[in-house]
Amino acid sequence: MDTKQLPLRKCVACGQMVPKDGLFRVVKTADGIQLDITCKAQGRGAYVCKNKECIDMAVKRKSFNRSLRQAVPTEVFDNLYMELENDR
After folding, report:
1. What's the rounded Cα separation, in Å, for the pair 40 and 63?
2. CA separation (Å) from 72 to 18, 42, 50, 68?
3. CATH code at position 60
4. Of 50, 66, 49, 65, nearest to 13 (Cα)?
């Protein structure tokens, strides 16, 4: 029986510590800021819960801008909402 624990990450919107597989990751790389579906891309990352309320709150509060220390393009948020729909 595998008792390995999933790593926890903090949601930029609600501040809850959540297992990594329950979050979306947005990453800042040399190529710019993008949604990281695999959660393995190199670069500074910020996590948000896989629910509409947390994504809305992160967009409204500009939590990703603060975490990634750069303005996040609106396409990234569009991709987050699309992934949320695909994830259900």
Report:
1. 21
2. 23, 17, 18, 8
3. 3.30.1230.10
4. 49
Q: Is the pTM of this model over 0.85?
A: yes
CA 44 to chain centre: 11
Each residue's pLDDT tens digit in the chain (88 positions)?
Answer: 556 788 999 999 999 999 999 999 999 999 999 999 998 999 999 999 999 999 999 999 999 999 999 999 999 999 999 999 988 6
Q: Is residue 37 part of a domain?
A: yes
**Residue 57: which H helix or E strand, with range?**
helix 52-61
Q: Is residue 69 part of a domain?
A: yes
Q: How many domains does the structure of the chain reveal?
A: 1
Q: How many CA atoms lie within 13 A of 9 on its CB side?
A: 17
Domain of 56 in residue numbering reads as 8-87
